[in-house]
Amino acid sequence: MNDERRTVAHGQVESLDTRHIRADFPILAQQVNGKRVVFLDSAASSQKPIQVLQAMDDVYRCAYANVHRGVYAFSEAATARYDQAREKVARFIGAPSAEQIVFTRNATEALNLLAYSYGRHFLRPGDEILITELEHHANFVPWQVLAQERGLTLRFIPITPEGQLDLDQLDELLTPRTKLVSFAHVSNVLGTITDPRPIIQRARAVGAAVIVDGSQSVPHMPVNVSQMDCDFLVFSGHKMLGPTGIGVLYGKRELLEAMPPFLTGGDMISAVGFDGPRWNEVPLKFEAGTPAFVEAIGLGAAVDYLSALGMEAVRTHEREITAYALERVSEVPGAKIIGPTDPQIRGGVVTFTLDRIHPHDLASLLDGEGVAIRAGHHCAQPLHIRLGLNATARASFYIYNERRDVDALIEALYKAKSVLKR
Ligand code: 7TS
Predict the structure, then answer these.
(1) How far is the CA of 235 from the centre of ligand 1 (A)?
(2) In a 3-state reduction of DSSP, which class is residue 146?
């Protein structure tokens, strides 16, 4: 695997060799309802290659014992693999050091950690937090709760009719009271890719810390925290070929060091006496209890897999397939694409409505054809309120999807229309 463009069997040039990639994903070889699996819901969670399954299986079979405890061989082997996984993740996102990678359960837990630890420690009544109208609930609810609890003001960057952040409003929204700015690098509904740098620079000018929600960007495109210069970045392992139960919080070292712990207990202390505890060094200060180290090792294998493909090639592949899907879906009578139609600023999600067919009915009918899409508000209800829609249908793509998956989606959409006589 490398990032060169290849000519595949049917003479088409593609950036990724999807035929070989698909052979690494056992689940894609199955049939659903007697049909070839067309999995178009990777924005919710991706499928897993055998390399990730094997890395975890191997720890359980050959190197399993609790980490950071034993002086015996199994514990040392598991600890070494766990530490390596942290280093791989750090390199993958361009973090200056592995100590700046805190393992969490998922992006949601990473954002809650920030709300509890950073938010409750550094924010004062009257301070302002700036988020956007397009956030996933994971980057919405923790700030609503914090604002209510601490007397803070929550403000929102609006979206334009095309579904981009309206940055013309930024100067007005950023005030000397703004202490925190948090936004999705890529929207899980609109697919909008937001260039984080201008927001980070302007937030920095008013002294606000910046959190980037990389849940939909880190799996799909090159992301470098050092170039971006964000204060924090969060993402989930399960959306990037890794297992469930493992996520990441990257933070600037001085901020992580200044923040109090989130959860307390074993592993996160350096010593405990009857007079109280002393905290462990970063990142262990934020990792109370036995960590999900087998899952972290699985994430390390996922990072290896993606790095071997090359994240530029992953992005190019998704841009191509998204462009094709945008074109094909928009040709279906009654279909309306939600979000930017320019594939340059759109990640691998195509969200749409189909005239007079409820997205849930559509998703069920598509399932009958072996096509898995997501329907609903995609945990972005405020955005749907803003769009004036209750629900939308969403097809999302990853490294194993091919143009024929889009063709199958289109065929299934026409079939659904004829079944429902719409
Ligand atoms: N932020 C964004 C932008 C997301 O898309 C998601 C999950 C999260 C945060 C939360 O991730 P978690 O792993 O902590 O749950 N998005 C979706 C989705 O679009 N469909 O299902 C989950």
Answers:
(1) 9
(2) helix
